[in-house]
């Protein structure tokens, strides 16, 4: 028995890196850098109305008597059907998100051979399939292996390159190089007359998604009530510092018209190193970026699937889908997940440009996930208001009123981001407005409607009992 406990134990540092690696991805920087110096305003707005509220609510719920994970929290507040809708939205959005991070990896890896291949849809789809299936097989060996791999990748491939990006921006400015954006505080305020500038909220919100993911692993900590909130706050601090200044550095070095969403980070590195005759460092940085981006996917491959598995115990999933291997992993569910990701990759063929495809998938993923956050925030408010939190974990300052204020801020942030997400930005080629809206609307329906089939399946099982 002692051996099993050690086998599944996760340290505070490993969990903090698992959370940070899942969210704080270098691949998000080009998308947010597109919006210039005004990105600082939107990052602060998104942090106050989205990142921090969701981090605080999920930290409080993770230490509650209801256990870890969106499914259990939503069930406790609203019943198992709403719980399944929440966990489905968390899980299915990842099917849409995976191709974006994988296309970033593919574009980065090919930079030295032929950068033009980053715009080749067939090449991108091929790499996406190979890498994702490889990560799926790694995840089949359990969270203890995945957490170690993610921690290594976060340190070597995310924190180190992020630090280099920040240093690059500072050196660029101190040596008198031309900044592509104005750093005056007036330039950091957005134009409220133009709706297009607000589309940056979609990219920034997308870069914050997943702050609650690791809650399903809270019971693997030695002291969940103490260690989980601590790991969460460490992650939030790292994420905010690196994302704001990393995005700003790319905006400073690269003109907005030259920023490519797939390999924009390598473009910025290349421009910086070229200016200082340090090109020999680029291959090392590219390998590190690939490592970090690959490691950031580990938590996403296994955590939402584990949450969906929880719903299976309430009759939403057939027994063969719920079946776990000797490592405690739902192997069949992970394989189904990989098949679905393979099909979603075809979205790259529906848009006129790779940037357009990348934005469509990012937008779809963000919208699906935001609806899940609405359910989670409402669940946190309701459970706290009914004094139904329990446990001895983290508690938001101010009791019920404090949770209500934090939760309301989060709901406002989600509402703004959802409204903004329905309009594509004007500086990305997504085809005609109606072409984009049609593909976008069909995508939302295709990913949400299967929930009705699972509801029917669960009710059918209830009648048998």
Description:
The protein has 19 helices and no strands. The N terminus is likely disordered. The chain starts with a helix and ends with a helix. It has a single domain, classed as Up-down Bundle (Amino acid/polyamine transporter I). It is 69% helix and 0% strand. The longest helix is centred in the middle third of the chain and has 32 residues. The relative contact order is 0.20. Helix 4 packs across helix 16 and helix 7 packs antiparallel against helix 15. The protein is mostly helical.
Considering the chains and any ligands shown, give keywords for the structure.
465 residues; mainly alpha; Amino acid/polyamine transporter I; 19 helices; globular; disordered N terminus
Strand content: under 5%
* Superfamily (CATH H level) name: Amino acid/polyamine transporter I
Shape: globular
Helix share bin: 55-70%
Q: Judging by the overall fold, what is the CATH architecture?
A: Up-down Bundle
Number of domains: 1
**What is the subunit arrangement here?**
single chain
Sketch the topology as an H/E string, one letter per element: HHHHHHHHHHHHHHHHHHH
